[in-house]
């Protein structure tokens, strides 16, 4: 039970300039010819793309295209059958989930998965705890480290709740928040782990157009703080509006990659979306 | 997402009053000024220190037990309270269903017995006080040994394995030559200490000093547990209980913290076992029936899982209720024989009227309240 897992040397998140041009092309996450089979089902077939630092990449595709599977492989939930995934140059497979989080990858869930019986503030504090070291001894004896980290975590949590706009609800139990507030809380909790890469799994699901617009603003603000964003989304308009580049999956295969405008006009993509390039909700 | 709306106005029934009663008390408690809370707390603690004195409890009407020495009963009750506080960490906070918690109590008691008793094969005859930390450490080790392979399992599997563990300990106690089975270990030394006139503080006849010792340790343990639950450790435990996958992905080293929950719970049970052995003077295989594990689990759920005060009240009430039946005759039948029947009835009634336990954690209370609203919406 020793504190064996050491935090990998994550440089304190550089306050990277907002307009770090994609041209520099510093790869952050490399999906290297990944194939993933479940028995006879090929969920991902030789998927290959790279996510560069500072960009917002959209991962889109029709239902069942393998978006979430791809996402789960990237966050270490599934091990690729073939190929590998590298995050900041290191192989993901074989790493424990909490280690991947500490390396700087955070995510939200398609179906919200907060800790319902904890307050909004506590939910975010759990995220902030990812880099804390207080364990049973320091907590039991109330050593200085406990107080220091507790104060830090609390301040960070309040700041992030302010950032996503639900600070006034911080003492409310997560289960009692509205749907939109819960989605925001998930983002705040993920940001509390100090991610370099934030993966959002259909963050706009169930939102009305006004809420979607607010979400777009929020995603841009997050990018402007230097966090790279991977966005899985169904709503084409949202994806077109916010992403720098787009990768399109269909039946587990990558069928297109490029700038939003290129992807929109790609006949394969149009075909995949049943001839409706803009399935505007 | 279920929508919850306020239920339509309706007349408050007796059942509602019963349900709302505690919420009102809890509200008042949480809004009371700090000094009021301290005064009340000190008063309650003083009451329990005074309780085993005959000069005090003879005025308490039906509270003292007619069929058993009340001081002895209070000692048993205090041991159960200590166990409930420990199990509450595992079940209430970390959400790990442990059906074999009493096994750790047995490990603590047997460690003391083997290392101190003259009937033990190894005849180390060490003093009690020296052995207590060893007993706690060994119990923690056994918790870690049991936890390392099993905490990778979830839910039902964990319950089965822990159940098996308690049975293993019991059967080892019954049939192993080294653990002396039914014959057991005798002359286990008492805790040290003498009065000015040379009489030992912890003797055979008077159970009060043992009770006071356990009560004091309960207070220390509760402070420790509170420190843990109001920290990163407690947040990690609750997040694991709430959604283990999400907790992992938010950077919680879940396995490590589950192991810590197991080890902390085990340590408290080991302490309780050591105290029990030091008081009883005698340990044999009959002390560790499986039923005890179930009773403690029921006590934690009865009191309100995930709430320290709930666990204390639950452990205390359940242990007391069982003893209270001793010596009461109704239609020529000794009620004590039917104690578990009544216990079962009380549990059923509880599950109908207060499924969240007597004093639930505030979060769970909120949840059940919501659910009631939802039910009303569905009507």
Automatic annotation (TrEMBL), chain A:
Residue ranges of every copy of the ABC transporter domain listed in the record: 29-276
UniProt keyword Metal-binding present: no
UniProt region (Disordered), positions on chain: 1-21
Xref: PROSITE patterns: ABC_TRANSPORTER_1, ABC_TRANSPORTER_2
Keywords: ATP-binding, Nucleotide-binding, Transport
Gene3D superfamilies from the UniProt entry: P-loop containing nucleotide triphosphate hydrolases
SMART domains recorded: AAA
SUPFAM superfamilies reported for this sequence: P-loop containing nucleoside triphosphate hydrolases
PANTHER family the record matches: AMINO ACID ABC TRANSPORTER ATP-BINDING PROTEIN (PTHR45772:SF7), CONSERVED COMPONENT OF ABC TRANSPORTER FOR NATURAL AMINO ACIDS-RELATED (PTHR45772)
Protein name: ABC transporter ATP-binding protein
């Amino acid at each position: 039970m020793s504190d064996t897992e050491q935090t990998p040397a994550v440089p304190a998140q550089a306050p990277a300039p907002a307009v770090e041009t994609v041209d520099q092309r510093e790869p952050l996450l490399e999906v290297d010819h990944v194939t993933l089979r479940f028995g006879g089902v090929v969920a991902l077939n030789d998927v290959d793309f790279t996510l560069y630092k500072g960009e917002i990449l959209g991962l889109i595709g029709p239902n069942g295209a393998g978006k979430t599977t791809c996402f789960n492989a990237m966050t270490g939930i599934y091990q690729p059958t073939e190929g590998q995934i590298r995050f900041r140059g290191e192989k993901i497979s074989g790493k424990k989930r909490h280690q991947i989080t500490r390396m700087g990858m955070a995510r939200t869930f398609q179906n919200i998965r907060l800790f319902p019986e904890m307050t909004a503030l506590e939910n975010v504090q759990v995220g902030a705890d990812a880099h804390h070291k207080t364990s049973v001894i320091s907590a039991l004896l109330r050593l200085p480290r406990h107080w220091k980290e507790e104060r830090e975590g609390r301040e960070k949590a309040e700041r992030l709740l302010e950032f996503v706009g639900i600070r006034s609800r911080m003492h409310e139990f997560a289960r009692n928040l509205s749907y939109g507030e819960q989605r925001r809380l998930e983002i705040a909790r993920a940001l509390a782990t100090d991610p370099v890469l934030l993966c959002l799994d259909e963050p706009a699901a169930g939102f009305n157009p006004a809420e979607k617009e607010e979400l777009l603003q929020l995603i841009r603000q997050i990018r402007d703080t230097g966090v790279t964003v991977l966005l899985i989304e169904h709503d084409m308009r949202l994806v077109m509006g916010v992403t720098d580049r787009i990768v399109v999956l269909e039946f587990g295969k990558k069928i297109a990659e490029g700038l939003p405008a290129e992807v929109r006009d790609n006949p394969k993509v149009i075909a995949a979306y049943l001839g409706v390039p803009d399935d505007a909700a | 997402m279920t929508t919850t709306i306020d239920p339509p106005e309706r007349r408050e029934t007796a059942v509602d009053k019963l349900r709302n009663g505690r919420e009102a008390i809890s509200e008042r408690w949480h809004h009371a000024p700090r000094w009021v809370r301290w005064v009340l707390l000190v008063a309650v603690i003083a009451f329990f220190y005074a309780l085993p004195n005959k000069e005090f409890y003879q005025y308490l009407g039906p509270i003292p037990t007619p069929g058993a020495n009340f001081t002895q009963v209070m000692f048993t009750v205090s041991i159960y309270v200590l166990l409930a506080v420990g199990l509450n960490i595992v079940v209430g906070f970390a959400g790990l269903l442990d059906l074999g918690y009493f096994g750790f109590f047995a490990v603590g008691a047997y460690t003391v017995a083997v290392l101190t008793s003259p009937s033990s094969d190894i005849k180390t005859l060490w003093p009690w006080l020296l052995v207590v930390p060893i007993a706690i450490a060994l119990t923690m080790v056994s918790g870690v040994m049991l936890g390392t392979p099993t905490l990778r399992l979830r839910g039902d599997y964990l319950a089965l394995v822990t159940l098996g563990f308690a049975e293993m300990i019991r059967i080892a106690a019954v049939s192993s030559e080294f653990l002396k089975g039914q014959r057991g270990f005798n002359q286990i030394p008492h805790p040290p200490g003498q009065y000015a006139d040379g009489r030992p503080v912890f003797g055979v006849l008077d159970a009060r000093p043992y009770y006071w010792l356990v009560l004091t340790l309960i207070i220390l343990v509760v402070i420790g547990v509170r420190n843990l639950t109001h920290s990163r450790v407690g947040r990690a435990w609750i997040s694991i209980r709430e959604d283990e996958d999400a907790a992992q992905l938010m950077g919680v080293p879940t396995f490590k913290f589950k192991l810590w929950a197991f080890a902390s719970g085990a340590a408290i049970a080991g302490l309780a076992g050591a105290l029990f052995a030091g008081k009883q003077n005698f340990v044999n295989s009959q002390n560790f029936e499986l039923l005890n594990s179930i009773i403690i689990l029921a006590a934690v759920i009865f009191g309100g899982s995930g709430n320290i005060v709930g666990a204390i009240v639950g452990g205390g009430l359940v242990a007391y209720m069982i003893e209270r039946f001793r010596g009461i005759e109704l239609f020529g039948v000794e009620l004590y024989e039917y104690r578990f029947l009544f216990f079962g009835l009380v549990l059923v009634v509880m599950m109908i009227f207060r499924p969240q336990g007597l004093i639930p954690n505030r979060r769970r209370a909120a949840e059940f309240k919501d659910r009631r609203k939802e039910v009303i919406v569905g009507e």
